[in-house]
C-alpha cells in the first residue's frame, strides 16, 4: 500500500499565522505592557511636551496586534497622560485625516 501524502493544511489560505491572536485580539495585552514599560525607561519624556511620559503611543493608529504597524518601533512614541488623551480624542474625530497626514509626513511602513 502506498502511503497517502498528508494534505493537512493544504487548502489553508493563511500564509503564516504564528502569533496567538485569540486572547489579545484587541492588542494591548501583556506583551505590549511589558514592551511599553521597557520602552518608557528608554524614552521617559513625552515627545510632545517633555514631561514624564506614561504611555507608549502609536503614531499611526493601529487596529490591533495583527496590524503590521503595531510592533513597528518607528510607529512608537512616548507620551504623557494628557498629550496621549488629547491625541486619542483627536484621532476618534478624524482618524482618516490623521492617517493621511501621517502618510504624507513619510512615516515608514504605512502601506495602505
Ligand atoms: Zn505631554
UniProtKB/TrEMBL annotation:
Location of the region described as Disordered in the Swiss-Prot/TrEMBL record: 1-25, 85-112
Listed GO MF terms: endonuclease activity; hydrolase activity; nucleic acid binding; zinc ion binding
One Gene Ontology cellular component: cytosol
Domain HNH nuclease: start-end pairs: 35-85
Pfam family of the protein (one): HNH
Signal sequence, renumbered to the chain: none
Family in the record: Belongs to the HNH nuclease family.
Name the UniProt record assigns to this protein: Putative HNH nuclease YajD
Organism from which the protein derives: Gimesia benthica
Lineage, top ranks: Bacteria, Pseudomonadati, Planctomycetota, Planctomycetia, Planctomycetales
Amino acid at each position: 500500500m502506498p502511503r497517502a501524502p498528508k494534505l493537512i493544511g493544504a487548502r489553508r489560505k493563511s500564509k503564516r499565522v504564528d502569533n496567538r491572536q485569540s486572547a489579545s485580539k484587541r492588542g494591548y495585552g501583556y506583551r505590549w505592557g511589558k514592551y511599553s514599560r521597557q520602552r518608557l525607561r528608554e524614552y521617559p519624556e513625552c515627545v510632545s511636551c517633555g514631561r514624564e511620559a506614561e504611555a507608549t503611543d502609536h503614531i499611526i493608529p493601529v487596529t490591533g496586534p495583527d496590524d503590521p504597524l503595531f510592533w513597528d518601533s518607528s510607529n512608537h512614541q512616548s507620551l504623557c497622560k494628557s498629550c496621549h488623551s488629547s491625541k486619542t480624542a483627536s484621532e476618534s474625530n478624524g482618524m482618516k485625516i490623521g492617517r493621511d497626514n501621517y502618510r504624507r509626513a513619510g512615516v515608514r511602513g504605512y502601506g495602505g
